[in-house]
């Protein structure tokens, strides 16, 4: 809320600097987010008296004026295009050398052949009011020659009032806070009405259909008003507070909203059929043209102020055009009501009409203010627009709630704070925010958690407990902890001492990030850059992965900021590819990335997410240099990386197999599905693949070969044995045998690997594929896979016979199971 | 054959041998010289073979001369061998000399993302005080994201979180890590000291200081007798660890529906050290997190009795901490993943 200090001072004395006040309010929980010095940017703008005003002989829209700005200075000749000036008026004059808000400089100029020694200013040019049509006419007592800054400058505090403190969305509410901080007294405006007969009920009646939606409605009638502009002082205050001045009647309503936090509405009384107001929900098909001249369809949840002819306004949100107070209005009905906050909030959201009024209604309104607000608006309308205030008011619920009783235990206050606050001090602190205290009684119930049963005080506790007498405006004080905060903030949070906890430590819990961090460290150590990409991607990203826009497993954002971020990602791939492409545009050809993040989908209608690791290698993998050739990314690079990663986190290396099916983004000849052993069974860890050339083209990647691995981190975690055991290695020498195995089309290296392992156990200590050859003299389609077998027994040296027998067994098994032969 | 003749032949042999040794220019040539003069059928053996023709009294004298010749030749051989070795080594070293200013072989140095590393650093600091890490879902239920946290539907406080909703009834993209408080309380009995790092989402236009995806770390401590003083002590310790010893902090009232009392925690501006600058809006202070004592309704919703347990929670913005820690002026850098940015964190 914007708070002009000159206005705030009507209600409380402020005898510290604006900066000091701002700090004290901030430390009280009313955070001052900005201090604006209004008028600080008016340079050489002074009050001048118009001596003469005559038409410009060479122009039909300019006036030539002479202005006195001081007895000593020569009279200035100033030209103006405005028509609202007359001799004798006091006006703001920007003399040559002046600077206006925004940095506009005023110098001597010539207009239509005449010299102008400065400029007469409008309220809008100074930012003082919003009137840009005419010159700002100052009060006749504005002293000539005095700088405008000295007369009309002000300091405006921008205060962030939290949603629970609707009462402080007002000058009077913030004056209370200032009083709590400084000990000053709050001055309420004196509200005395000069009322006239006939009484209000002869002009207007109010019927509320549902008192839950409108607990109270107070109406007043002011007849014989003359609608016109408000005084400069009122316009300047409203403008400084961020509210646009409209007319004296409307300004009176807005002024009271800012002053008391009470939104009210004024109707042209002659436009209310028979003076009969009904508060009701909208009926099907009803429409209303609101003040902003938008014709709105009203939903049946919308609360209306209506008459027998139809809707007059949307309650608490915006008035209707038909009953708007205008220049022709002579009588006014003031609405000062309390509405159901949720109903107002929903209506404001539905119609996208969040107004200063609806914001206050949403936070709940104090019943008492309905009466006070109506009276205050009537008083100001009469003061500013004349007229007669009809005696009494129409009031649907004149019973006003008493202050509420909130029993609390001072020792619990201290124990929550960890600071011993003496009870006497606690009572004094609460008194500073108008909360009185009295001793509690046996059977008083301490509200601990709203909506749950409270704690009934026994005799012993009751003797030490207190009851806070909460004034009606503090609707936020409901439970004991609220009292604790109130004590703490008035005392000052800096009185809460800082100390490290001495309470028991929690049970040990394994860090869920340990494996992830080990993997991250390993990948970064191998030269990859970690990225964080958006979890929200676009439909096209998923379509390229083969998931249509209406895929039932995709979770969609219903109110996305843009189509590009309208679906929750089902894969890390689109984000990684986007980083690749963006960096390729920066002429990078050595992109190696990884990301750890969640992927999402719906399983049986319930959101399910899994932590994944994505690795993407594009372009040169070696770091080509003068002594080293570039090495393009390929499947084997990323598979080797996955092997190293598994070793680093303590998991066995995954096995690779050719998958049964492929995504449209996967190179069908270069995709492997990776499995790890979990609890004795094979579990899919993920896939390693090169991107399909068509996919690369679609995403506009420059790299021809991009290798990717997408791994499920939960599976990786479960593949790590709980304990790592040392395995003794044999002290006897090992024997190596090389076999070049010729296999035909369709036989995979992994098949050969498996057969060798199965037929050599338990003597095989190591197996390494060291060469792959195809070509003459092998037949077309044949490949030679050269393996080095390391054979070793645990406790003895193998004999030549054992070794030969083992190799023979391998050769036989390969021949029998794979049709392979040994290349000689 | 007489003594003088034999002596002269030995002398000649010695001279010839020494010349041959000096002339040998490789280890192989030197080896050949050695064989030729000192070998089993070498010159020395041949000459000394004539010793039998001498009278017996002369033989010791010739033997002595022969030994002297052998020793002289062997000494010369050893010297020459060393010379040749040294020369060969020198030649090799000369041959292998390179331009040492050529750049080293490029090992790629990877990097860890500053947001994730900041989360890790935060966890490391609070880990010293017994806080353990939990994780909560990104697609969260409205019930936990709002209602269990004392924010009913249509509550005005919902304005504090501009929410992105999903097409699954009852779910949304979590607007903060605070629903993790409920997850932890429902699965763990006090004493609780929990950290919940995670990605959050808001309906927010992107600019230098806002994004619709960002990271937070939630902290929760609950036990019998956990106080606001404990909260302050821990936050002070955190601020010192993250921003340096002796950095002043400020504890002031804040507002969250799920804490009461609520706290805003400021550190002295790390840019201007409290003098006042645009970064701190001239206040000298920067708010780094929100906190407070867990609201009794939230304790209840977590299954704990607020008469027995009390505790605190805090939520800090990883992005904000990272920005202050590294002096980054635009939050958008974090999700753009420009390698020129990332490589600075290797």
**Can you identify the CATH class of the largest domain in chain A?**
Alpha Beta
- Tertiary shape of chain A: elongated
Distance between the termini of chain A: 91 Å
Q: Helicity of chain A, in percent?
A: 25-40%
User: Low-confidence segments of chain B, ≥5 residues, pLDDT <50?
Assistant: none
Per CATH, the superfamily of the largest domain in chain A is Bira Bifunctional Protein, Domain 2
What would the average pLDDT of chain B be, to the nearest integer? Answer: 92
Give the strand order, joined by hyphens, for the main sheet of chain A. 30-33-34-38-37-36-35
Query: How many domain units of chain A?
Result: 6
Integer tally of domains of chain B:
2
Report low-confidence residues of chain A grouped into runs of 5 or more.
none
Q: Count of helical segments of chain A?
A: 22
Estimated radius of gyration of chain A: 41 Å
Give your account of this protein's structure.
The complex is a heterodimer of chains A (824) and B (346). Chain A has 824 residues and is of the alpha+beta class. Chain A folds into 6 domains: 2-39 and 156-182, Phenylalanyl-tRNA Synthetase, Chain B, domain 1; 43-152, Nucleic acid-binding proteins (OB fold (Dihydrolipoamide Acetyltransferase, E2P)); 195-395, Phenylalanyl-tRNA Synthetase, Chain B, domain 3 (3-Layer(bba) Sandwich); 407-495, Phenylalanyl-tRNA Synthetase, Chain B, domain 1 (2-Layer Sandwich); 514-718, BirA Bifunctional Protein, domain 2, CATH 3.30.930.10; 735-822, Ferrodoxin-fold anticodon-binding domain (Alpha-Beta Plaits, 2-Layer Sandwich). Chain A is built from 22 helices and 42 strands. In chain A, the strands form 11 sheets. In chain A, strands 30-33-34-38-37-36-35 form a 7-stranded mixed sheet. In chain A, strands 3, 4, 5, 6, 7 and 10 form a 6-stranded antiparallel sheet that branches. In chain A, strands 12, 14, 15, 22, 23 and 24 form a 6-stranded mixed sheet that branches. In chain A, a hairpin with a 7-residue loop joins β3 (43-55) and β4. Chain A is elongated, with a radius of gyration of 41 Å. The model of chain A has no long low-confidence stretch (mean pLDDT 94). Chain B folds into 2 domains: 3-95; 114-345, BirA Bifunctional Protein, domain 2 (2-Layer Sandwich), CATH 3.30.930.10. Chain B has 12 helices and 9 strands. A 7-stranded mixed sheet of chain B has the order 1-4-5-9-8-7-6, sandwiched between helices. A two-stranded antiparallel sheet of chain B has the order 2-3. Classes of the chains: A alpha+beta (824), B alpha+beta (346). Chains A and B meet through α2, β2, α8, α11 and α14 of A and α5, β1, β4, β5 and α8 of B.
